[in-house]
Write a structure and sequence with these properties.
Length: about 210
């Protein structure tokens, strides 16, 4: 069985030309599965979705991209105003209502920039997401190019509490105004870098 549809997710996120193919063999495993090929805001999206009667949702081999403003329409990120393009390559992800999602994949943020009091060019940022024995959802963050060098990560616990730690080192291209604006969000270290620490719950980000 197959079909086609258009779905409005938010006022800035529209799934068009969604073609899906039902995979009947997965019924033997007590779940419904479909392969999806669609356009997300006119950008290609492919994935396999499966769901169980319990409400658990699984995503496999998802590839798509979103602009920063489009991403901000579905996620509340603990940063300033973002710009650039996000490329998602998710190997697998499991979502259960009220629980921390389990995600394995990579997000590349191209032509990344964040504006707080001053706009910072971050170059290209890579975010590697997975889980480990001590944290159901972790992310390592690094970048190439830009006015700042980024290094850090995010960790969570089973209740969804997260800690984001990010070190930002100004490069030679960083302006005095940019360096001064970093002091508004981070603590200056002896080596000239700024340490940003943000704590909260994934529910605040729209991830639970």
């Amino acid at each position: 069985w197959s079909g086609q549809a258009s779905i409005i997710i938010t006022n800035k996120l529209i799934l068009n030309n969604a073609n899906w193919s039902f995979l009947p063999t997965h019924l033997l495993l007590a779940k419904i599965a479909v392969d999806v090929d669609a356009d997300l805001n006119n950008r290609p999206l492919t994935t396999r979705l499966s769901a169980r009667m319990s409400g658990n949702l699984a995503v496999k081999d998802l590839e798509t991209s979103l602009g920063a403003a489009e991403l901000a329409s579905v996620l509340v990120l603990p940063l300033g105003e973002l710009s650039g393009d996000f490329q998602f390559r998710i190997n697998k992800a499991h979502f259960q209502p009220g629980s921390v999602p389990r995600i394995d994949g990579t997000v590349d943020w191209y032509q990344a920039a964040v504006t707080i009091a001053e706009t910072a060019d971050l170059g290209n940022v890579t975010i590697v997401v997975n889980e480990n024995k001590t944290s159901p959802l972790t992310a390592s963050i690094s970048n190439r190019g830009g006015q700042l060098s980024l290094e850090g990560g995010l960790s969570t616990d089973e209740t969804g509490q997260y800690t984001l730690k990010l070190t930002m080192m100004p490069k030679a291209a960083a302006t005095t105004n940019l360096i001064n604006s970093l002091a508004m969000i981070g603590k200056k270290q002896r080596n000239g870098a700024f340490m940003v620490v943000n704590n909260g719950n994934l529910k605040q980000l729209g991830l639970m």
